[in-house]
Design goal:
The chain is 38% helix and 20% strand. It is of the alpha/beta class. It has a single domain, classed as 3-Layer(aba) Sandwich (Rossmann fold), CATH 3.40.50.880. Helix 1 runs parallel beside helix 6. It comes from Lentzea tibetensis.
């Protein structure tokens, strides 16, 4: 099972690195669980995060494996992505093949723009919750939730909530005991 974490210029550092830390600790310490995590960007080239941190993806859209789980982080770069039809088409294509779509922070705005959250509960960074309703008034905005698991779509609130969401993924896929051991390992 392949978990892909999206990288793009302007991505919020902790939106990527928080879930990465949890998921990489899990997949490396427990390879028998059958999951791998990797990063991907549109062209496979390094990106510059919101606060200047450079990150190099492991894959491009063209050479990436089929993702079973997609993690779409947020950050200032999502302002462009919610209007980027090529990116929204990529998100929709992932939705058609991935069993689980997840987002952190304003990544949920991109999912809303792609039509993935219509009629569903969702959350985002506290400062952007109103934009979920602007993009799609049918979304049931959950302003007090750290993350919202709606079966095949999970949205997480802002920044550090991506760690909570990733620990939830470990629990969902490998059990609460496994998630507790990873939580202890990262001292969270």
């Amino acid at each position: 099972m392949n978990i892909g974490i999206l990288l793009f210029d302007g991505v919020e550092e902790l939106d990527v690195v928080g879930p990465w830390e949890v998921l990489a600790a899990w997949t490396q310490q427990h390879p028998a669980d059958g999951y791998r995590v990797a990063t991907v960007s549109r062209d496979g080239e390094p990106v510059t995060c919101a606060k200047g941190m450079p990150l190099a993806p492991q894959h491009s859209f063209a050479d990436a494996p089929a993702w079973d789980v997609v993690v779409h982080p947020g950050g200032e770069g999502t302002e462009l992505l919610v209007k980027d039809e090529e990116h929204l088409d990529w998100v929709r294509a992932q939705r058609a093949t991935a069993s689980l779509m997840t987002s952190v922070c304003t990544g949920s705005l991109v999912y809303a723009a792609a039509g993935l959250l219509s009629g569903r509960p969702a959350t985002s960074h506290w400062s952007t919750l109103e934009f979920l309703e602007v993009i799609d008034p049918t979304i049931e905005v959950r302003e007090d939730d750290r993350f919202v698991d709606d079966g095949d779509v999970i949205t997480a609130a802002g920044v550090s909530a991506g760690i909570d969401m990733a620990l939830h993924l470990v629990s969902r896929f490998a059990g609460a005991e496994r998630a507790a051991s990873i939580k202890r390992y990262i001292q969270y």
